[in-house]
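Table S4 entry, Glycyl-radical enzyme activator family protein.
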Amino acid sequence: MTIGVSNIVNQKLKGRIFNIQRFSLNDGPGIRTTVFFKGCPLRCLWCSNPESQQGAPQLFHLSNLCTRCYRCISVCPTGSTQVGSGGEVVIDREKCKVCGKCVEACPNEARVVMGKEMSLEEVFDTIKKDSLFFRNSGGGVTFSGGEPTQQIVYLRSLLKLCGAYGFHIALETCGYVAWEVLKSILGDVDLILYDLKHIDPIKHKQLTGVENQIILSNLQQIVKLGQDVVVRIPFIPGCNDSHENIEAVGMYLREIGQKRVDLIPYHRLGEGKYRSLGLHYKLEGVAINTEENVQRAVMALKNFGLDVEVI
């Protein structure tokens, strides 16, 4: 059955998307297409997708691909791209308007605009390409970010579209959103992937820029409603990997009746993105988790009756 986009939602709506990743395997069950929304209210020190944080488009400069042909400099209308003291290409981020002219001029794809406005139809057409894989693997679509609920009207429309086609829908959220907003879309979501960074509100603010009272309250209410939820815990050395925090998280989840947990060990895959954005990575030099520490956390959580998977 073919269902037209215009029959379900306002097809003129556009959202800010920075990536659509097909054939994802760790964003819910089966083979999935993950749609990454731009904009996030948190500023996690370990964020592996720093390009997701700002709502506006940003310019990536991939210095390893740059051959110093300087074509970007010749086409820059604001003079924000210049030659540095060592002959390297540098960007004045305050002057740059992210017009994209340098991206078009670069012969080596060393520049990329991260984030663009996409219509509902553009996004949905990409999702539909993998419908056969969804059916055969028990997969579906996952909306991630950033924080998808920051573009709630656009998100709600995509949920309606995917639901009309019978796709399994997962939503990854940091939970830092008004309860009424979150509650309004729960009926259109099959699975919530709920991030939990730290149980202590003060430390949570130090690590993410916001306190966690709203996050914990929303999680409790979602679980109470019987929603299918997987709590996702990033396991970051020196940040939230202490025995005290893991014990407190386990106790809290048991108290509210939450069972399923994904533990996500720290990785440095996003570190290069900070350089590409002209940003400093605040966890530079932090070692990855040892297998011993990961298994210790897994056992501590399991002692509270939780079903734990390391991803």
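The domain at 58-114 is CATH 3.30.70.20 (Alpha-Beta Plaits).
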